[in-house]
Write a structure and sequence with these properties.
Structural class: alpha+beta
Largest sheet: 4 strands, antiparallel
CATH class: Mainly Alpha
Oligomer: single chain
Strand order of the largest sheet: 1-2-4-3
Distance between the termini: 30 Å
Order of helices and strands: EEHHEEH
Shape: globular
Number of helices: 3
């Protein structure tokens, strides 16, 4: 499930669930929860759901690319 930005229904979601985060960065749930615990990804709790900010996912991927000398 996605929470979409109010300014444009076709833009990227602001928040994604853990399953979608796994799909986006290509990892298992355990790693996503480790990244959330370490603060490398930012979470938003809504009820019992853990949602991850899309901005933090993009930032994490860019940090990985920068560290590897790619991009």
């Amino acid at each position: 499930m996605h929470a979409y930005r109010a300014d444009s229904p076709s833009s990227l979601p602001i928040l994604v669930d853990v399953t979608e985060t796994c799909r986006l960065i290509g990892c298992k749930r355990t790693l996503v929860y480790e990244l959330l615990s370490s603060g490398r990804l930012k979470r938003c709790k809504i009820g019992r759901r853990t949602l991850v900010t899309h901005v933090s996912i993009e930032r994490f991927v860019q940090e990985c690319l920068d560290a590897s000398g790619a991009a």
